[in-house]
TrEMBL record, chain B:
Chief site of localization: cytoplasm
Subcellular location, record wording: Cytoplasm
Record flagged with keyword Nucleotide-binding: yes
Family membership noted in the UniProt record: Belongs to the MnmA/TRMU family.
Domain tRNA-specific 2-thiouridylase MnmA-like central: residue ranges: 205-266
Molecular-function annotations in GO: ATP binding; tRNA binding; tRNA-uridine 2-sulfurtransferase activity
Residue ranges of domain tRNA-specific 2-thiouridylase MnmA-like C-terminal in the record: 274-348
Annotated protein name in UniProt: tRNA-specific 2-thiouridylase MnmA
Annotated site residues (Interaction with tRNA) in this chain: H128, Q332
SUPFAM superfamilies on file: Adenine nucleotide alpha hydrolases-like (SSF52402)
TM segment ranges: none
Gene encoding the protein: mnmA
Entry's Gene Ontology BP terms: tRNA wobble position uridine thiolation
Keyword terms: ATP-binding, Cytoplasm, Disulfide bond, Nucleotide-binding, RNA-binding, Transferase, tRNA processing, tRNA-binding
Amino acid sequence: MRRRMLDTAMVYLDHAATTAVRPEAVADMTEEFGHLGNPSSLHGAGRRARRAVEEARESVADSLDCTPNEVVFTSGGTEADNLAVKGLYWWRHQSSPRRRRILVSAVEHHAALDPARWMADHQGAVYEEIPVDRHGRVAPEALRAAVERDPDDVALVSVMWANNEVGTVQPVAELAAVAREYQIPFHTDAVQAVGSQPVSFAESGVSALTVSAHKIGGPVGAGALLLARGVEPAPVLHGGGQEREIRSGTLMTPLLRGFATALRLAVAERAAHARHLAELRDSLVAAVRERVPDAVLNGHPTERLPGIAHLSFPGCEGDALLMLLDARGIACSTGSACSAGVAQASHVLLAMGADPETARSSLRFSLGRDSGAADVAALGEAIGPVVERARAARRKRRAA
Amino acid sequence: MTLRVLAAMSGGVDSAVAAARAAEAGHDVTGVHLALSKNPQSYRSGARGCCTVEDSRDARRAADVIGIPFYVWDMAEEFDRDVVSDFVAEYAAGRTPNPCLRCNEKIKFAAVLDRAIALGFDAVCTGHHVRKVDGRLRRSVDLDKDQSYVLGVLTREQVAHAMFPLGDCTKAEVRAEAERRGLAVADKPDSHDICFIADGDTAGFLNDRLGGEPGPIKDESGAVLGTHQGAHTFTVGQRKGLNLGGAVERRYVLSIEPVNNTVTVGPRDSLKVDEITAERPVWSGCAPLTEPTACQVQLRAHGEVYGCRAVERDGRLVIELDEPATGVAAGQAAVLYDGDTVLGSGTIAATARREHGTRV
């Protein structure tokens, strides 16, 4: 029987979902997996593991311009976002019960949106979305307006550094400055930004920052929440208290080493990598538009990630496009969350003012380290007939 | 010939084995699970339905094991419009619909098939227990599991694009094969009832949507014998649930008139009909019968088969039964057979007793 698996996909344009682990990280992890020892143990084996963890912590701090004790390791971006949103709410609400409002941008990742909504549904929080413009950007004035309605009842603000679907980069430092004026903690999910944007925790002025390993060539299962001095979220995971009593769970030494190595390389190579991605992205957009002139590029025209091209294809359904491209060995994403495998109209596109039909007609192509001109050429070859076919299917469906 | 085949995978054992057989036969198979509810948890939970999150996961696992690509198609809008709303409207009109049949007619072999063809597929494959021989539907070799009746509504064109790999074996053989192929759904229970009514409480489902207006239960002379809590919850031929205490003889529902919310009951003998008029005739197995032709007819799922003479006249199908049948409900399909081959079908609109007048 024939087997078709993802591994055989020739053209991988979904690096924003996850990207290949770098060989240097694999080498470090492989070595570390050969060692025995829990970093919390007091004996020699434990001390050796602890040293590896603390070296990883220092490396991460160095890469992101923070101090080592500002790094709280987590299992990844989702855990870090949950810790930030829930933990900061509990901390702030505890010290002043009036603080109930959680301000989040309307285009946050579900890892930040859903904890905020859950806090509203179960913990008495008040959930409030800060609107974005048609490019998906939060204006500092919009945040200011939301805060100033009642600065004393805001528990926290969460606005991502760069959007995972359309790639729009937020004016994080300006937004953080607004929150700082009112001494409100400001969290940012920088999962998609690190590696192509200059991310300095110290300079950004944010109180908390989420980063994930597997988006930058590290392993799945590791990440961190950076916490500025004096920012003390209540724990979400209780237990051994391994990470400053804020996060419990045995530290995953091999993964943290892989994370630190991948991050160090990503930051060192950032400028050249971003240039490479931007060139490739531009040629991808041009190749698509040559075949499909009415394809619409979404997101901010300049303030955007270099590795993401998010395009709407009028008259198509995104899931049909994805399936047809997949059958031709081209992997991409509809960019939106799934519910039981059904692609929902993207909340990001809807927040940007798109109608549901347009939102469902979109695909995200995301580039990575291994991407090259051949990938773009292959997509250019395929996209014309694929769009034509998807349009025919859509017309058929509408006619029925 | 290698075909591009779209295998509809419910998450059950039949469709999994059907997809596996299609792939093994050398076809280029893609598995698709149909999401039929906008909120997948809102329909049936557990292992008996075909549209829960677990079913979707089971279908995905089966596709992994078979080694075919797999996607979920959102057909919730079409399903709600063409199956669920139709189901409610039919009951509201005093008829007894068969939603599985409607789903085959409007979803699997219409909306899904159309989309599949437009996207470049040649055929839709399902796990129905039915054979396709020379472009015609024939009963499964497993008569207990035969599903030719619920496919009797398909047109010749729809049948032409359908692939049914399971018709030549029994359900027990399908389960054994699933086991052999390492498909975890091998011992998943059969689905029953109506997939979009989560708790199996059809009357409650209808009452929620149509309201339960009390009305009279009358006999054939018009005398009021009792009260019901909503005419739409009754089906022609039904005996239970009438709550006519003290009746000397067993009474059956003879007809339902939603307009005046009246249920008419009578003795079993009054249920007997031998002339059936059916609407929207389709002919998948032969040219339209323009002359009265001897054949057989089945009047409900898993129902008895009657000898008959059938003819299409003025766009309607007129069926004269060789012997009277009971419990023939408007809204069900009359599927015509020549032996085990499906000839065509129509939707039952009216029934009569030849020596009596038209009743329904």
